[in-house]
User: Fold this.
Amino acid sequence: MARAPRILHLLLALCFLSSSSVVVASASGAADAFVGCLAAAGVPPRLLQTPASPSYDALLRSSVRNLRYVAPGIPRPLAIVAATEPAHAQAAVSCGRRHGVLVRARSGGHDYEGLSYASLDPRERFAVLDLAAFREVRVDAARAEAWAGSGATLGEVYYAVGAASRALAFPAGVCPTVGVGGHLSGGGFGTLMRRYGLAADNVLDAVLVDADGRLLNRTTMGEDLFWAIRGGGGESFGVVLSWKLRLVPVPETVTVFTVRRSRNQSATELITKWQEIAPALPRDLILRVVVQSRHAQFEALFLGRCSRLLDHMRAHFPDLGVSRADCEELSWIQSTVYFAFYSSSKPVELLLDRIGETGRYVKAKSDYVQDPIPRHAWESTWSWLEKPEAGLLILDPYGGRMASISPSATPFPHRKGNLYNLQYYSFWFENGMAALEKRMSWVRGLYREMEPYVSKNPRTGYVNYRDLDLGTNELEGNVTSYAKARIWGEKYFRGNFERLAAVKAMVDPDDFFRNEQSIPPLPAAKGWSSI
Ligand code: FDA
Assistant:
């Protein structure tokens, strides 16, 4: 499977189709035993869908964000368990273990490589544990805390926090339909990260179903497992049902702006300068850039009023030419609508729309930039961005709070020495191989071209921007190979990878929770000193 991403996933799945009739026969036996076990454990039949059920397909697709992974030939789950209570999730894990059915947890379904609902291995028997019903958000404004179910979307969390207080916020990603479960599992950054760090940095407790089907909280799971689930990537350690969040103070009025500069309005020079300016700005200010076609779009959130924001811009980045007319003063909750929909006049209730935009095919990759990319390299990037099949680049500056947290405080290691995260994002709507190949080659080609200018040894990436091109797991016996997984693992987690594997060996030595990029158990011989 290691080279699977290089030959298109679809082709791979189709290659295996000839042997799949045998697999289907035994898989249906496993499905029956699994479903029978769940029924015996008290999971109501209406919450169990198999491919024979009329609403299986609709449920499978209900939160899919990447059509590449529901294409014909892609292996599908032998059952979907739409759990509504912790006991259902516990039963899914226990029955899965008993009957050899792996369980893939799905919260918001946004995984870029579809790992919450699709497997690339046609021989794998797996079920999806859908957590969409675990979406309650309870805010305690007096204590500045909240509990959020994994199946809640970021929009639902933001809405609940905003409804409870104008002076509180939660620091997480920009897209409101992203699920809490996967997002917090991989870190989670957005417009408040320079002031407050990652979403995962603001998790105080969690409720998790472990590989033995037990329900654990922070005290009963222990600090090693609690460390691992806050950034070590989804799926590997158990199923997190809910998270206790630290809410953070924000002023009642914040300021946003978006200014767009085209190539012939010095966009190249501005991006080149931005690279050193943005990570060094005061931590109350984030200035990100989206580069697309012939434009660079500079988007800012400032935790304060326009007049002070303009002072900062004049002092640090006068060339961008931001003026009072560009500013919009609003509440933090309105700012989340602004960044999601590029309009502050839209109702905040839009944050509650769990569906948003679907029907896309997606491929993304990411890099960390440690030294400014030279102007000439940006100049040649336009030739990529102006191609008809081009996607876009998203540049998220770090620094501020991000740089003041130890790289080993959580599994997310990209704290120090990185100017910004660079995301390559391509999406398209056309079905078929021609479109697929063109778009995938665009992303991969530009990524290749950027190699001289980004982090090295290893070339790192962000686990929540899942990219199977970095490597996929291989089994040794019935356990994921640690040696093979290191190839992709150290790119996401650097030195924290070994500790993640040590935690995995401790909590899931049989490797029940696994997917194409799950953390493998650390082989016993290697040991780990601090566990
Ligand atoms: P999904 O349900 O697909 O799960 C992702 C992974 O986590 C899977 O492996 C899954 O099995 C596992 N998992 C899910 N729920 C789990 C649970 N409860 N317990 C254990 N494992 C679980 N990121 C970012 O940092 N900032 C941003 O601004 C954005 N913006 C953004 C926009 C769009 C349109 C997309 C598609 C993605 C992003 N992301 C992002 C990336 C996003 O953070 C990442 O894809 C998350 O993993 C998505 O979480 P979901 O729960 O939606 O995914």
Notes: Residues 489 and 497 are 6 Å apart (CA to CA). The radius of gyration is 23 Å. The pocket of dihydroflavine-adenine dinucleotide is lined by residues 65, 104-112, 115-116, 131, 150, 173-175, 178-179, 181-183, 185-186, 188-190, 234-235, 239-240, 464, 515 (CB under 6 Å).
